[in-house]
């Protein structure tokens, strides 16, 4: 699938975006920390291509959301900078997912295609603790 109408989120190293992390999901039409939303993400090796994928919102700066990309590719299991999340409502086939920790996606609020699910507080707390310990978040 090719995206010819807009660029995807800007991607930056996680430690460059360190901030206070708060769990505040609220399925109200706005993306909030703790929610998994869907947005267009460009492929790292070819920025002219990409696909819709789930992203865990971990912060917000005005209309810019800070998110971590999810993947259902099981080869991510055990890879550095990837955290096993397990299955969730964001995946219609209920496949396990992995969260990429070393790269923050800066997504314009208008780039959110839909709200997918709320990550439970236990798993979100685990993500927050890793961001705090390994990536200079507070």
Protein structure class: mainly beta
Q: List low-pLDDT spans.
A: 1-5
Share of helix, binned: 10-25%
Radius of gyration: 14 Å
Protein name: Growth inhibitor PemK
Keywords: Toxin-antitoxin system
InterPro entries: PemK-like, Plasmid_toxin/cell-grow_inhib
Family: Belongs to the PemK/MazF family.
Give an overview in words.
The protein has 138 residues and is mostly beta strands. It starts with 9 loop residues before the first strand and ends with a helix. It has one helix at residues 121-135; strands at residues 10-13, 35-43, 46-61, 64-71, 82-86, 97-100, 103-108, 112-118. Strands 1, 2, 3, 4, 5, 6, 7 and 8 form an eight-stranded antiparallel sheet that branches. It has one domain (10-135): SH3 type barrels, CATH 2.30.30.
Task: Describe the protein's topology.
Elements: E1 10-13, E2 35-43, E3 46-61, E4 64-71, E5 82-86, E6 97-100, E7 103-108, E8 112-118, H1 121-135
Antiparallel strand pairs: 1-7, 2-3, 2-8, 3-4, 4-6, 4-7, 5-6
In short:
The chain has 138 residues and is mainly beta.
Short descriptors:
mainly beta; SH3 type barrels; 8-stranded antiparallel sheet; 1 helix; 8 strands; disordered N terminus
């Amino acid at each position: 699938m090719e995206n010819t109408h807009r660029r995807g989120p800007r991607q930056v190293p996680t430690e460059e975006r360190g901030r206070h992390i708060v769990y505040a999901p609220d399925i109200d039409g706005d993306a909030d920390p703790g929610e998994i939303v869907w947005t267009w993400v460009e492929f790292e090796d070819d920025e002219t291509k990409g696909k819709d994928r789930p992203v865990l919102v971990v912060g917000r700066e005005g209309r810019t959301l800070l998110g971590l990309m999810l993947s259902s590719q099981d080869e991510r299991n055990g890879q550095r900078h990837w955290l096993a999340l397990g299955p969730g409502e964001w995946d219609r086939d209920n496949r396990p997912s992995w969260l990429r920790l070393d790269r923050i996606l800066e997504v314009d609020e208008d780039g959110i295609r839909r709200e997918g699910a709320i990550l439970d507080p236990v798993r979100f707390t685990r993500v927050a603790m890793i961001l705090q310990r390994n990536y200079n978040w507070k």
